[in-house]
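Recall the central idea of this unit: under ordinary conditions, the amino acid sequence of a chain determines the structure it adopts. In this exercise we apply that idea directly, starting from the sequence alone.
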Amino acid sequence: MSSANAAASPTAAKVRKFPCEGCGADIRWDPSASALKCPYCGTVKVITPETQEGVRERPVEAGLRAPRDLGWGAERKVIACKRCGAHTTLDPHVAASACVFCGTAAVVEAPPNQNIVRPEGLLPFKVNRDGAVASFQNWVSGLWFRPSNLKSTSRVTNMRGAYIPFWTFDSATSSHWTAEAGYHYYETEWVTENGQRVSRQVQHTRWEYAAGWLDMFFDDVPVPASHGIPPALAKEIEPFPTDGLVVYDPRYLSGFLAEENAIDLPQALEAAKDRMRGEVRSACVREIPGDTYRNLDVDTSFSALAYKNALLPIWVCAYEYGNKPYRFLVNGVTGKASGTAPYSWLKITLLVMFIIVLVVIFASLKK
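Accordingly, the structure predicted from this sequence is:
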């Protein structure tokens, strides 16, 4: 999109900067103050929403048809990672030499995407960087079968706060399930052991047809629209308190990274439905009578589908151990942490050897 077209478009980005009223420096969002704060003179400015309306769900059908605002609404520099494909934006004066998501130095500056869909909502950071580092240290301390010196020798590199694009979905579901319910029963059987006839109880299963209906409602099922954050890892730091979403304002991004939306609404909707189907299936399993089951079939219909598009706050870092990078995430609101870490094969080997020794000793005592 040319600059002339951007100016003519009713949805084009309106670029703004946010100088400090006290000294003129760039003012940034401070999670501890829940306000904008100048890092130089300490001036604090509370963000007053431009609209009193909250972030509301929109019908999916309307979202697929309606035009949406474009651009971030503020000047941002774009960095593209050649390894993981994430497109990260940051304040224009900040230099970036490595990808915050995978740690690779293979990053290049990319032209801004004028057609990027602007987020409708945002969940501001509540946990500051010191809190995120503390969460990392606590998480490392609680790991099992990891190197003993991991906490002291691991190096948190480039711990950065990043707003990650998410879609959230609401839906009512109605499911019909069928299965074979198994009921265990026991019969006495006689066998010969060491030349003697002994009895034992043998388990059998009686199978009966079972069926039922199950209605479930899902509220704000999150789907990351990110190339930089694996969905499984993002799920481990849920939930995000989406009832605290505010209307998007580019001032919240000041001082933080923000990833461009990499997954559009139709693709995200299918991912959300897959997750809902998995939870519905687990709920249907709990409905099946008896002791066990087999051949479960679940047919689910969706209705009242609605969505929200928002940026959610995550502290991201790559830490190094043994010259290998690992990833770690902290929920920017709740402080819940998760990540990847190396295993200590020495500890695992010693545990296996200990178990083997116990088995040998126990077997010898039975003789």
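Residues 3-180+209-350 form one domain.
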